[in-house]
Inverse folding.
């Protein structure tokens, strides 16, 4: 007999997936860069698509925001005042699978390739069309959701439930459940 919690969970996921590409759950995107006009442009277009936008002007501030706010995506400028964006990308990738889009003023292949080899999921060259940035953000987030979802892993926005390990996380923070709680949500109990 199917579990009511599982049915409600699946119904919510199905309703949430029909958003027409808009981020209806308010996923947080961290935009990192020290150029105010780029931050403002990216923020406006991402907010218009339903994303919650966070910003950081330095690499150090970005890493603090990631720990504190646990965004779903980082849009990271290659040139930052305190540290190279590649170093920030390397540090993020060493600790998580958080999706990263690199922004750079350089259009040569070397920048693009190095960023991808360090773990960036995509690359956008400045100046950029803000609609393209939003489309790439949506695509990277969709890919992250698909990659992290399998028969034993359920994900909706920042919530992830691993039915094999019987664990749940909100962003990067583990949620405390009694064993029965995870089994009920997963439909095993």
């Amino acid at each position: 007999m199917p579990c009511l919690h599982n049915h409600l969970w699946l119904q919510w996921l199905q309703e949430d997936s029909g958003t027409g590409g808009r981020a209806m759950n308010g996923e947080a995107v961290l935009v990192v860069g020290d150029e105010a006009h780029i931050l403002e442009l990216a923020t406006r277009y991402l907010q218009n698509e339903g994303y919650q936008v966070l910003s950081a002007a330095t690499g150090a501030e970005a890493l603090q925001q990631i720990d504190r706010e646990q965004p779903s995506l980082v849009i990271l400028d290659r040139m930052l005042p305190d540290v190279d964006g590649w170093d920030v990308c390397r540090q993020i990738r060493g600790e998580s699978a958080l999706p990263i889009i690199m922004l750079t003023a350089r259009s040569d292949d070397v920048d693009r390739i190095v960023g991808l080899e360090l773990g960036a999921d995509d690359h956008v060259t400045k100046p950029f069309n803000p609609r393209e940035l939003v489309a790439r953000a949506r695509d990277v987030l969709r890919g992250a959701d698909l990659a992290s979802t399998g028969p034993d892993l359920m994900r909706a926005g920042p919530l992830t439930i691993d039915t094999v390990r019987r664990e749940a996380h909100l962003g990067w923070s583990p949620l405390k459940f009694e064993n029965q709680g995870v089994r009920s949500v997963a439909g095993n109990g």
